[in-house]
Amino acid sequence: MKRTFLLFLVGIFMGTLSGLTGQAIAASSIVVVVDAPPRTMHPNGSDADCNLSVMANFFDGLLQRKGPEGKLVPALAVRYEHPDLLTWKFYLRKGVKFHNGNPFTAEDVKFSFERLSNPEVSEFINTGKSIASIDIIDDYTVVIKTKEPTQWFANNLHQIYMTDKESTEARDPGEVGVKPIGTGAYKFVEWVKGSYLKMAANEDYWEGAPPIKNVDLRAITESSTRFAALVSGQADLVSGVPVELYKKVIQNPKLEVITRAARRAIFLALGNKPGSPTADIRVRKAMYMAINEDEIIEKIMRGHAAPAAQIVDPATIGYNPDIKRLAYNPEMAKKLLKEAGYEKGFDITLAGPNDRYVQDEKIAEAVVKYLAKVGIKANLDVKPKSIFFPEVTGGKLDFYLIGWFDGAFDMARTYFKLIHTRDAERGFGGWNGTKFSDVTMDLLLESTAGIVDQGKRLQVIQDLNKMAMVDKIAWIPLHYQQDMYAIQKGKGIKFQPRADRWIIFKEISKE
Amino acid sequence: MTKRFFRSKIIYDFFHDPSALVGSFILSVFILAAVLAPWIAPQDPYDLEKVSLEHFLKPPIWKEGGEPPFLLGTDDQGRGILSTVLYGCRTSLIVGFGVVLIAGTFGITMGLLSGYYGGHLDAVIMRLADTFFSFSTTLMAFLLLGLFKERGVLVVIIAICIADWVKYARTMRGSVLEVKEEAYILAAKATGARDLRLLLRHLLPNAMPPIFVVMAVDLAVVIMLEATLSFLGVGVPLTEPSLGMMIAIGKDYIYAGMWWLVVFPGAALVLLVVGINLFADWLREELNPKIEKER
Amino acid sequence: MGTYILRRLIQGAFVLLAVSFICFIIFRYVGDPVLSLAGRYATIQEREMVREAFGLDKPFYVQYTRFIFNAAQGNFGKSYVSRIPALGLILERFPATAELATTAIFIAFVLGVGLGVLVSVKPYALRNRFIMAGSLGGISTPTFLMGIVLIMIFAVYLGILPPFGRGDTVKIGFWRTGFLTWSGISHLILPAFTLGMYQLAVLLRLTRAGMREVLTEEYIKTAWSKGLPPRKVIFKHALRNVLIPVVTMTGLQFGELIAFSIVTETIFQWPGMGNLLLTSIYESDQPVIVTYIMLAALIILSLNIIVDILYAFLNPKIRYD
């Protein structure tokens, strides 16, 4: 009895000691808290940003996007050529080693791209399947041909990660999914799912060893708990400060808040089936004007959003600064409805997720209220994204709330998925949840695939944007989310938020 | 004759016991408030035309910034807390009584048949009951609602009933087994009474007392369960009022100092359940022959 | 006795099969995992390819038999979200939930029975009336509300206890424990009390009721009149008889405990099995959900059998044939 008690005491002592020494060693280390946990260590096993953000630290792609604006620059490929519409030639960087010492060569590039098509380990099936062939010219030169002209191919490469062929094939896929081996700035140390992910600086990193030596990444999904971690000093950097607690964070002298406009736009999609009320442009205009977006931004987003007039962000190819929002005008809305013959209003169901975007549920509730005030009876149907998204891709909805931004910074790519008439054969309209269809827009969009001159292509895409937002009101845009981060002031952390909300630790430095 | 006896002694005891009186008083107040909610609530919090964002997050009127008619403040969509609590109690009571009625009827029937006929029927019913019971009402309801993703007050009631009927069946069966061999039952049988008549007119009324206790306790348990399910997001849909859902919304605002979003619905919930439990405690004592009555 | 145990085990196996069957049927009608599996930009053909790769295009009975066959070998499929084996994902979190649950039961049992005995000796003393009133509040407060209130008081206003996570843990073999660090223990306090509070109140009332009954029995009165010391009378004679229904009640409440641990783990972000189940339900991660349900069924059934056997030992009047 006494002996077990003694053992118990020794245990506590050792545990505390190891905890304390841990703290001492980690002088140049930070604790980062994010709002969504990484789900897998397969480099392209998830296309969710929370996962890609973490992978960007363990792995590199052929190209990378340097923060804060996300400019596309060389990474594992020092340069590339695009000789014709289908061909991309990459010249690889020499002397790069994986975390296990293996050299990085063209074999690894071919392996990594081919792995994208395997659904057991990848969610980038589309990218994988779009490739027709991969030819290894020599150890440091690779030629990739796509099946169809894919203008944004290179723009996407910052999130296609290169993994080591030899060790990935030698290991069990279950182990590959929990222990990543890449060429990135950080090496994997430990992952306790649901608790933390630890990584250590790669001193041999080809770009130079990163300044922060140890990172402890934790995910806290509850916003109030995240706030508690911040206030109690347990977190050095927090991504995703809850909107409703912003004031409290600002008032705290130990904390500093950093905000930046997010890339993601939140908007409403409306069907245009012939015969339905929303097929009439006046009804669409009325619904647009009935919504008091300024009040939504002020009250629900607590000022942390910027009004949007289109669904792509300024950094995307196709953004058109000439497009302006329709002003809030419920009287005009009622007038338009009367003109269209819907003085008494009509019924419609607004669907949306309740666990995906900042305040998504509450925004939808507010929209329903605004519509009610002009006579449109909207039924609210919010549900978890795991049920909502399949309804969107299944084309089953009339009216829904959604958010989007394009990882490849190309509006055409987005439009092909979101607004082109649904066409299973050619792979268009996969996310056109209302079966919206406009042949003029379709034709204009398809024409952009064959334009070689980038300047001309930009012009056409911007015109398409204007047509969609102003003439057709293809969507009712609401706002761009704002990303909010908070850091502990005393630690001397220098952090600049990226446009894509990723946190790349090699970009963080200490004074 | 037995009915008259119950009526006189029980009623007398009821009016002389403080916990019985307090408990049922609380319960009656809540029931009244819930029934009259559409008339006494300052606003209908689910009528979209009346609710407006401009009133959001106002504190109760005795604090700075509060404004009538929002006596207890508002939530982040501009709904008055007092109104939402009143309507939320409605939902709680509807689900509570709904489950007790449906699970109770089904369970009592199963228990009657099981206890009276015995044999294979008894074995089958009891085995089934054991399986459902071991999963516990909470886990069953949670899994069913979580998997099916259907939402609605009726759906919640049914999901809870699926495992809840067992306690009624078991109690009824036990009660029936005790009463089955009593003299007056055998006498009725001897005079050629048919089974159904026997079951309904003689067995059932005399086997009911323990069931009443189970009903009272169950009402409390089910109301708490509905709140828990709604809190987790698998209970009633967003468009229906629920105390549990209000607390779920409110918990994010605690750190910001807006305690009224949690405290008022929480207090209402606890008070309602305490009232029911007080009454149930008294009922249990009253109908239990074993404890010596204390003065 | 032996045949009884065998019979129960066989019945248990049937129940497990039935449970898995029901789960499978339910999943036919719930969500389509292929969408998230194939990624945002996949075309409809690509999704069909993914469907085939995962065997989701095969008829129901083929999928089911394959599942049972694999399950018997310990392979419960891979999570749709993380592509890591489901069983491993859940078992990895078992220590966290187990430590939380056992601490909660320990608190509930020790304090519940202890206070119950204390209160039963002098039921009308002022202090005891307070305790009884507290226990009434305890069974009237749902677990989630208790958790939020405790967080409000101890973490927000007083700021003395941490409101989330497990703190620093130490890994011994495959078991990750929080008992060996002060940080681990302090993180355990609020969640364990939240989870155990309801049980505590139930056990308190049960003990008190039982003690009241027993204390009026003849043999107790005999013991009093014999001049035995009060402690001996209460603990050796009265309590032993009360423990039987108390222990059985604790055993029977296990299903409830598992259910409420889900709530507690969510509120405190405790990295246990319940937390994983909730996120899996939101994400329609079927392999994980099915595995969890079967594991829960297994634990509950085994515990029921163990409790029944214990009951037979404790109470000589029961005989199983």
Would you mind describing this structure in some detail?
The complex is a heterotrimer of chains A (511), B (295) and C (321). By secondary structure, chain A is of the alpha+beta class. Helices cover 32% and strands 23% of the residues of chain A. Chain A contains 16 helices and 19 strands. Chain A has helices at 2-25, 49-58, 106-115, 125-129, 165-170, 173-176, 223-231, 246-251, 281-290, 293-300, 330-340, 360-373, 385-393, 411-418, 439-447, 454-471; strands at 29-34, 63-66, 71-74, 77-81, 87-92, 131-138, 141-146, 186-192, 196-201, 214-219, 237-239, 255-270, 305-307, 347-353, 377-383, 399-404, 475-488, 493-494, 509-510. In chain A, the strands form five sheets. In chain A, strands 1, 8, 9, 10, 11, 12, 13, 16 and 17 form a nine-stranded mixed beta sheet that branches. In chain A, strands 4-5-7-6 form a four-stranded antiparallel beta sheet. Chain A is globular. Chain B has ten helices and no strands. Chain B has helices at 2-16, 18-40, 81-117, 119-135, 137-148, 153-180, 183-190, 195-232, 243-250, 260-287. Chain C has 14 helices and two strands. Chain C has helices at 2-28, 34-38, 44-53, 60-72, 86-92, 94-121, 126-140, 143-157, 182-215, 218-225, 230-252, 254-268, 273-282, 286-314, and strands spanning 170-172, 175-177. In chain C, strands 1-2 form a two-stranded antiparallel sheet. In chain C, a hairpin with a 2-residue loop joins strand 1 and strand 2. The model of chain C has no long low-confidence stretch (mean pLDDT 80). At the A-C interface, helix 1, helix 4, helix 7 and helix 13 of A face helix 2, helix 3, helix 5, helix 9 and helix 13 of C.
What is the radius of gyration of chain C computed over CA atoms, rounded to a whole number of angstroms? 24 Å
Indicate the proportion of strand residues of chain A.
15-25%
Helical fraction of chain A: 25-40%
How far apart the termini of chain C lie comes to 7 Å
Mean pLDDT rating of chain A: 87
Ranges of chain A where pLDDT stays below 50 over 5 or more residues in a row are 17-27
Would you count the extended β strands of chain A for me?
Answer: 19
Q: Report how far apart the termini of chain A are.
A: 53 Å
Query: What structural class do helix, strand and pairing data of chain C support?
Result: mainly alpha
Q: How many DSSP H or I helices of chain C?
A: 14
Largest interface: A-C, 52 and 56 residues
Helix content estimate of chain C: over 70%
The rough form of chain C would be described as: globular
Unreliable residue runs of chain C: none
- What fraction of residues of chain C sit in β-strands? under 5%
Estimated structural class of chain A: alpha+beta
